[in-house]
């Protein structure tokens, strides 16, 4: 299984949310993992915000960053290319779609042209709905 790992899934894993086990199980079953550069930026920003609002402390954020840095060494990272940005500005099957979600969906479509069997790992309902309508099989 080849997975596109979207930010919501990574954050659920790193922050110990109730879906953490499902995300971890899916990650470990994957043959290959791909994420967008956007995922890495979103995760980093969310960890800063989580510290700022007191959801986690600085040590927990550091631990999460270190864990992601180790694991992501084995992930491919898709850059936000001109083509991905252009596609993200177009209409999606289930509007409205927020800008960052559109970038994830466009990244999935870009990857699908290279890896037709790619599956998104996402917990974001808007991304899931659009992914289904675009022909993907979102996990978990």
Give the helices and strands, then pairings.
Blueprint: E1 2-5, H1 7-14, H2 20-29, E2 32-36, H3 37-52, H4 58-71, E3 76-78, H5 82-88, H6 99-114, E4 119-121, H7 125-133
Parallel strand pairs: 1-2, 1-4, 2-3
Helix pairs in contact: 1-2, 1-3, 3-4, 5-6, 6-7
Q: CATH topology, anyone?
A: Rossmann fold
Provide the spatial order of strands within the biggest beta sheet: 3-2-1-4
Structural class: alpha/beta
Indicate the CATH class.
Answer: Alpha Beta
Number of strands: 4
> Distance between termini?
12 Å
CATH superfamily: 5'-nuclease
Largest sheet, if any?
4 strands, parallel
CATH architecture: 3-Layer(aba) Sandwich
- Integer-rounded radius of gyration: 15 Å
Q: Please, what is the average pLDDT? A: 97
Short description:
The chain has 140 residues and is an alpha/beta fold.
Describe what you observe in this structure.
This protein is an alpha/beta fold and 140 residues long. The chain has a single domain (2-133), classed as 5'-nuclease (Rossmann fold), CATH 3.40.50. It has seven helices and four strands. The protein has helices at residues 7-14, 20-29, 37-52, 58-71, 82-88, 99-114, 125-133, and strands at 2-5, 32-36, 76-78, 119-121. The chain is globular, with a radius of gyration of 15 Å.
